[in-house]
Amino acid sequence: MTKVIGLTGGIGSGKSTVSRMLETLGATVIDADRITREVQAPGGAVLERIAESFGTGVLDASGALDREALGAIVFRDAEARRRLNAIVHPAVGAEMARRIEEARGAGDPLVVVDVPLLLETGRAAGFEAVVVVYCRESQQIERQIAREGYTREEALRRVRAQLSIEEKRGRADHVIDNSGSLAETERQVRELFEGLVVER
Ligand code: ATP
Question: Which residue's CA is the nearest one to ligand 1's atom 23?
């Protein structure tokens, strides 16, 4: 039977890195952020409804979503944010469910659903287990500075906008500690994969 687990962590803690390792081992990875971009793309499930709800000012000249314009609206307005989420979340959820069913139908042994805000949004209940990719907060900040070129203050603000990584670690069924070398992370990922797939 297909096992379906949720993968999460803090911003920059290594979710994509661990997802790629799991995929290499044979897991089917479903990426919530990618699905969100897909449903919002031209021809996707929700772009028209977003434009109806927020006006054509949230579209760019080519008719694609202008993320900055939409972001400027929802950033300051909780009601607008709820309205956007009410359009986007069900479409993302439906597409995720469709892909999970497809994987079940194909008999895939392990499906890993990468959801950055899994623990913030209370969606953990839908999964057989929750894996948290952990590193220290100071590393989340350093890795973001290195990768995105953020200032320390910007990086800190982004990290602090989420549930703390220590809190997330405490809620995990399995923790991948990505505060060491990639080789150490890989060893843990292999152990997790084997445990999950063989345990069945
Ligand atoms: P985001 O929340 O921004 O999507 P993420 O949780 O998916 O990030 P990754 O993109 O996997 O995190 O990793 C963040 C950055 O840290 C990347 O530049 C990655 O190469 C680097 N990184 C990941 N793991 C390690 C590690 N063990 N040692 C050093 N650098 C690492």
Answer: 14
